[in-house]
Structure formats: C-alpha cells, structure tokens
C-alpha cells in the first residue's frame, strides 16, 4: 500500500512539473524551452551514431515519437522511486525537482538561438511540482495538518480519498497544461499563415511528365509521393513553427553584397517548378526514406549570383530556425541544376512538417547536405572553416545520392503462386538517370525489366518485369545501371558515412 501511495505522489508531482513547464513555454512563445523539448533535442544531438541508425532503421519516421515515449517511461520510473522515498523524506522529492529544473535549464540555455527567458519554463515547472508534492503529503494525514515521518507511512492515518483526488486533479491539470502549451506553441499561427499563402502560378513550368511514368501495378510506388506519405527525417523533436509573415532570409558571409529577403520578396522572384526526388542518407537498401514531389521555388543559383560569391567560397551553410546547420557544395548550387528555395510541394504551400514557409531542395545530394527545412540563413564559407551539424558527427562532407534500386512488389516474406509473377519497383541515379534495371531469381540469369518513361534525371524511375518462379523459398534480387553505364555494386554497405550500397534482395514463399 505504501509503495502505491508513493508512486501516486511521485507521478502527480512530476506530471505537474512537466505540464506547467510546457504550458509556460507556450505562454512565452518559446516552445523549444520546454524541458521535454530541450532535453529531447539535446539527446538527439548527442546520441551515438549507431543508436541513431538503429532508431531510424527500426522506427523510421516514428523515431521521435519513440524517443518521447522512452523519456516518459524513464521519468515515470524515476518519479515513482522518488515518490516512495519522499513519503518519509520529503527533501528527496524537493532535491529531485531541483535536479529536474537544473537539467531543464541547462538543456534550454545550451540550445542554438537560446535566450535567457528560456530558463523560466523549467523553473516554473519545478515550483509547480514542489507545491504539488507539499500539498499531497499534507493530505496523507488530513487537510491542514503537517505530515510527519511517523504517520505518513501508517495506512490508518492516510486520508486516502482526498489524497487520490488531489493526485487526480494534479494529473488532470498537468495534462491540460501540456495540451495548452502545445497549442500555444504557435503552431496555430503557422497553420493560419499557411492557409493564407497562395501557391505561385507565374512560374517556369516543369517539363511535361510522360503518361508512362506510372506503370499502374498494385503495390508499386506511385511516381509522385503524396505530401502526407512523404518521409520526414530531421533533428527537430517539435516541429518548428514559422509564419510566412515573419520569415526572413539572410544571405551573408563570403559575398560582395549581403541580402535579406522576406517571403513576399522571395515569391516575387522568377520561380521554377520541377519534379525532384529527395533521399535520406540513412535510407537502408530497399528502404522507404525517399520520395518524389513537384516543387516550386526560387532558383538558388540566381540568388547567389545576385549576392556575388567569393570564388574561394566552396560551402553554402544553411541554417534552420531551430539552429540546425547543413553544408552544401557551392558547385552543386551553381552548376545549372535546379537547386531552389522551395515554397510549394505538390501544388500546396509547404506542409509545416516539411519546412513551411521555405526549405532548400538541391537535386542529387542526400538531404543532410542539401535539404534544410525552415531555412532562415545562408552563409557562404569554406569546408575548411566550418563543420555543419552532421559533419561534426562523422558523416561525409560530400554526399551525392548513390545509384540504387528497390523491389516494391512482391513484398519481402510474402507468399506468391508458382508460375509467372510481376516484380516491380523503382530505381534512381540522380543527375545521370537510369538506363537499365535487371532482376534475377535465386542465382539464375538476369532479366531486363521494362522501364517507365523518363520524367527527369532528377527523379526515380519505376520498372517492372515478368518472371517465372518455381515452388519453394525463392530469392529475388535487383540491380540498376545508370546512363553512364555504371552498375550499382553488389557489396552491401551501411548508410554511414555517405549512403548505403548493395543489391536489394527479398525472399518470397512460392506455393
């Protein structure tokens, strides 16, 4: 009984602390200062590479939700232990809340773009937790009576109903505070701002997409990935919220002229519309951290030409509103490819989760060196002068997307009927294009696949082949060859440090 009482005490106090802290972070307009967000973001920054790869490989785009759940579980276990100890020694509870506040303050104040005001949420939360702890302990021996160590542990002296009701109220208030804090994190403002944005129509249109880019096969990925299905991998534990009205872009560094643009000025530039496939460097062989969309944006090369780039500058460092940095080779922005500051995705303003109001899109490079979301700063510098976020963590400076191919249907470990089956998937070799895809069963001969029409060298290319399979466990493999005649290597390597390689292999049960 005593353990259950202590657990309830600890959980209610911790919930009050975190709920109020999250509410205060919303009230002051600093969602990133919430201890939940600040500590979680710090964890993302410091997590070992192997653990990051495991999380993305195992949980995909749900990796941040899993992190939050793990944090909640850890806090709950600690809170229960502290609550039990606090029944007889309240100083344990108060000391734990001080420690929680200290961790929250340090995490908030060491985040990029931190301000002094960011210390307030953790301090307010600790105060709320301490008040909850004190009031609930008093209820253990009757309202208004001090709780002493002799009676707190005696079940006969416990005013349980009032204690339980008080804990329930604390938990309910904490939940409401957390929801209110999330609401007040200005997402509603960003949503309203996005609803007011009109997708530009005066643009240089994308080349017409051939009618044969989609092969119409069940289970095969469509040529264009719907916004709702587009993968999301970034370092933001809570999605940054920026309104189009307040957005500004600063271009500076090794340039002749510094530039500052607002959203209206960016949209007034000569815009382009292009189909571009984006891929995450963490994508495993056969993985789904890749998608193709139609983007509208301002050519990045034109903007840099206007600023006048110093010939010595070889790195363009882009910075997100949350402090994330990304380094892109200047050559990849100025060599004529359709690098852009995108404002629209598949006919809509950028989704908030994908960078609203403005993000970078650079064809042919993995996202960690090219695709900054919520971008607000562009600095021209050199690779020798600055290491961006992922480079400091051991990933390669130069990261062109590698030629890959993937089987979409049949699925791995699925059952198929003996005889002729349709095998289909997608292949990509950006900036070069796919010229050939081959499939084989077990160690049999390679069979050429039929390729979908070419939309662009910057997009993936669907393919299909009809092949015969005999009963039993069968292995299907695929490999692609680019337009320069280079076939993707068979040797399988992990994504770190510059992208995975290898033939996608699946197993099917043929009946």
Could you please describe the fold and organization of this structure?
The chain contains eleven helices and 20 strands. The model is unreliable at 143-153 (pLDDT under 50). Strands 1, 4, 5, 8, 9 and 10 form a six-stranded mixed beta sheet that branches. It has a five-stranded mixed beta sheet with strand order 3-2-11-6-7. Helix 1 packs across helix 4 (63-86) and helix 6 (120-139) runs antiparallel to helix 8 (160-196). A hairpin with a 4-residue loop joins strand 6 and strand 7 (325-329). With 511 residues, the protein is α+β, with helices and mostly antiparallel strands. Helix content is 34%, strand content 23%.
List keywords for this structure.
511 residues, five-stranded mixed sheet, 11 helices
Write the layout of secondary structure elements.
Blueprint: H1 2-27, H2 35-46, H3 49-59, H4 63-86, H5 90-109, H6 120-139, H7 149-152, H8 160-196, E1 203-204, E2 248-253, E3 259-262, H9 263-267, E4 271-279, E5 290-299, H10 300-307, E6 315-320, E7 325-329, H11 330-334, E8 340-345, E9 348-349, E10 359-361, E11 375-381, E12 404-409, E13 414-416, E14 419-428, E15 434-441, E16 447-448, E17 450-451, E18 461-469, E19 472-482, E20 504-510
Parallel strand pairs: 1-4, 2-11, 13-20
Antiparallel strand pairs: 2-3, 4-5, 5-8, 6-7, 6-11, 8-9, 8-10, 12-14, 14-18, 15-16, 15-19, 17-18, 19-20
